[in-house]
Every structure is written in C-alpha cells, then in structure tokens.
Amino acid sequence: MTNRSDKKRDKGEQARQLLNRGAVLLEKGKAKDAIPHLERARELEGDNVAVLINLGGAYVMAGRHREAIPPLEEARGFEPDNAMIWINLGAAYLGNPVLATAEQQMRAIEAFERALELNPVAPNVHYNLGLIFVDRGDSELAVAAFEQALQANPFDEDARYWLRKLGDGEEAEDD
Q1: What domain range is 62 assigned to?
Q2: Domain membership flag for residue 175
Q3: Each residue of 12-50: pLDDT tens digit?
C-alpha cells in the first residue's frame, strides 16, 4: 500500500510543479509555451481544478477556443460556483469575437452572466458582454454593460470609449 500512495503523492507533486510552471508562463503572456506543461499536469492529475482552469485559459489565450471547452466544462463539474471557470468558459464559447455565430454569442452571454451571478465585479466580464451586445446591434444592452464595467473598474478607458461611441458621453465622462 505504501508504494501506491508514494506513487500517487509523486504524481501529485509533479502535477503541481507543472501547474506552477504553466501558471508562470501564462502570467508572462506565453500561453503557447504553458500548454504542454498544463496538458502533462492534466494527464497526471485530471481532477485538479486549478490545472483544468489554467489549461482552458491557456487554450483561450492561444486562440484554441474549442480545445478550451472540455477542460473548463470538467472543472465546472467539480466547482460549479467558481466564477473564473465561467469567465473562461464564456471566452471559450465565444471564440474569435469577429467570427462568432449567434449561437456562440448566446452561450458566451449565458456563461458570462453566470460568472456575474457568482462575482458581480468579475474582471472584464461586463466589458466583454458590452462588446457582444455591440456586435449583436443591441445598443441599449451594450450601454448598460459598459456602464457596469465602469462601476466595476472606474479606470476602464475602453468602456468609456464605447460609451462615448454609443452616444452616452455623459455617463462616460462622470468620475
């Protein structure tokens, strides 16, 4: 029995080291370099939510949105109330915003709204929703989302830009 538990402990330690390497690379903006480390960590410890979130995030950052969905959906199964999972799922479901279909947009909206239920000031979520609504031609919802983005982050100059562009300059200028 000791041999089996030692092997499990060693696999867990190796997975944590790979996760840490991958996370450091992600912080440096090197998603493509992080992916192999995170994929290996997933092979060793497939039920590690941090590994799954980071792997999904790395895929999104590398533009491999479809590949991001399975690990993020697995992570959602383990921790359905984790806002970061829903944020990453929203980005994965959306894919390339320029090429996103109406169905992809709806899946992203649902995931982003779930993230906001869990964390009303989740970073960049209101802004991302605003962009989707702009693309869908729904100025009213876009303005509301960009206003909420400014409430969450008063220094969000991109949200201010969109509010001015959408004709709500009064709100955009308030500090």
Answers
A1: 1-67
A2: no
A3: 899 999 999 999 999 999 999 999 999 999 999 999 999
